[in-house]
Design brief:
The complex is a heterodimer of chains A (363) and B (359).
Chain A: E1 2-7, H1 13-37, H2 42-51, H3 57-82, H4 90-107, H5 117-143, H6 147-167, H7 201-219, H8 221-231, H9 233-238, H10 243-270, H11 281-291, H12 296-320, H13 324-346, E2 347-352, H14 356-360
Chain B: H1 2-18, E1 28-33, H2 43-58, E2 62-67, H3 74-85, E3 90-93, H4 99-108, E4 113-117, E5 126-131, H5 133-147, E6 152-157, H6 162-178, E7 183-188, H7 195-207, E8 212-215, H8 221-228, E9 232-237, E10 248-254, H9 257-269, E11 276-279, E12 286-288, H10 296-310, H11 339-343
Parallel strand pairs in B: 1-2, 1-3, 3-4, 4-5, 5-11, 6-7, 6-8, 8-9, 9-10
Antiparallel strand pairs in B: 10-12
Helix pairs in contact in B: 2-9, 3-4, 5-6, 5-10, 7-8
Chain lengths: 363, 359
Amino acid sequence: MQLVLEKRAERSTTIALISPLIAIGLTIVTLCVVFAVLGKNPIAALAVYFIDPLTDGYSLQEIAVKATPLVMIAIGLSLCYLANAWNIGAEGQFLIGAVAGSWLAVKTQGTDAGNWVLPAMLALGAVAGALYALIPAICKVRFGASEILTSLMLVYVADLLLDYLVRGPWRDPQGFNFPTTAEFDPVATVPTLIEGGRLHLGSIIALFVVAAGAVLLGRTIKGFEIRVVGAAPRAARFGGFNANQLVLLTFAISGALAGLAGIIEVAGPVGHLQPGISPGYGFTAIIVAFLGRLNPIGILIAGLFLALTFIGGEQAQIAMKIPLDVTKVFQGILLFYVLACDSLILYRFRLISTSPKVQSGAH
Amino acid sequence: MKRTLLAAAAVLLAGCINSGGACAADKLKVGFIYLGPVGDLGWTYQHELARQALVKEVGDKIETTFLENVPEGPDAERAIEQLVRAGNKLIFTTSFGYMDPTLKVAKKYPNVHFEHCSGYKRDKNMSTYSARWYQGRYIQGQIAAKMSKAGVLGYIGSFPIPEVVSGINATMLGAQTVNPNIKVKIIWVNSWFDPGKEADAAKALLDQGADLIMQHTDSPAAMQVSGERGKLAFGQDSEMIKFGPKAQLTSILDTWAPYYIERVKAELAGTWKSEDTWGGLESKMFEMAPYTNMPDDVKKMAEDTQAAIAAGKLHPFKCPVVAQDGKEVECKGGDHLEDTQILGMNFYIKGIDDKIPGK
């Protein structure tokens, strides 16, 4: 007897939509077991994780701050993934966007440059992110290089470039050699929305990005092309859609959004350029994109949900002394269940009997 | 009557819940922000040991909480603020990179007191504290020069900030008193805690001819590598002898407990005020692990130097200090460099054949 995965003949849309919910449900059940093993009350722990952060304005703001880069990057990635273009290097595009925008902030530091600085920084960040993403896209289109590898490798290039800049030319002269630029001037800083809070203009921009993504995918020909190229490449060819052009386009959009997220993060919550500005947003956004079903609204919800797990994890450490590792285990389990549930939508298990002959043939 | 009591109890209980979790209305809440995991066996572990000692000492009057693995970026500000919002009145932020986030939160909550480790920015409600580890490094330099057969020391640096640069200089000043021709090879791993990189750096240094490893990073990885290769090494932050029983010469032990207990007692007594504490061997802000794996005469020399520094008779940066370019450094502290010159140290002394990254 042998257990095999077999492709299902038809896919159920309902199941596809509720699959992430099943995954979240399974994660929570597993989490309860983990809590119980740790000797914590599972119900109380779940409340600290998922309910408490939603009950006061401060935590809600923090969730939005944390979700902002995740959602912006994930929207761009979803376009790529829908078009069957695998951009794994959003982290690098995020960093390059941050670097490019920071260049202007550093150059205008201490001058009486006007209010044009911040918009110009954001534009620079987006353009730089797009150009950086076009490198693997062009390599794929022109030379057939695997964009998965090239985009991933460029992450480390971006990381080291940032590292070099803040250790060398852009280092804060008053910063005691610590690898960071000086704090950006007010005109180079993303304004906060609520006095005393950390919620900033970037969150509004992220909402615009979600809306734009929804319109692009749902209401435009380009969006239709993207979806067809990914779902049915042959049909797309018959339809005369240019798959290569779409690879370039989706990579550029996704790079621009990651770059924009990068400069917003640096000019917003961080306030200066330093290494470690991203705790892996570009990679976490991949989880967000898939958890959100590559759908803009889904991504918004998924981004907020993942941000909630970060904030809740911190509160669980404070209130219940639950180690941080549990939060990491939790995020890992979640991704595992999402992928598992997805596989079960597309495939099903079947037991088939195999003859000894076939088995020996495997040698 | 019974009912009123019950109602009163309920009200009390509700009050406790609103004030955040367990009913600890009278207990002072003390929070800690840790850079690494509590199990890093180095920097964070020592802060955690001190927290545990603190709880042992005044645990009946305080309640402590820590957040571990908090990156030195935008997340730090939120983590610190979370502790404030959970009712912590005294918060220790235990890494240099938390300086600006701590300051931001301190400005926002003037009634909460903050203690930032190893930084230079202070405020009315924000103290700083650190240890004069360079004293220990001077002793290590002397031991190293005695023990190294090749006359080449391997040094694993984290970030080229003044604390680390002054540590390298102090090591070399100590080493030069024993062997004026001593050499040092330095590798920067750009991290405080990265066992993989630290081990690679140790291997590379040994391959390049160094026969003794010193580190300014937090994991025992380099100690393990040295032990495996039959070479000698110095521990960092904590006792690392079990990672290299035949390798460890000594280790600089961060002993924060006395300071934490003192500051918490001050807070409890209402006498806490913003201060800048930079303690050395004389105040037991750090200690040297037992001198092991060395002959008695070297051990004697180390102990004598330690006693002289603790008694204030010997200053590692006694004038004249000659910089790499051959120029004598201005002697602002009488017969030794002034504290500000050490805290902002951004040059190598003569005898170091290398250059500070990015300079």
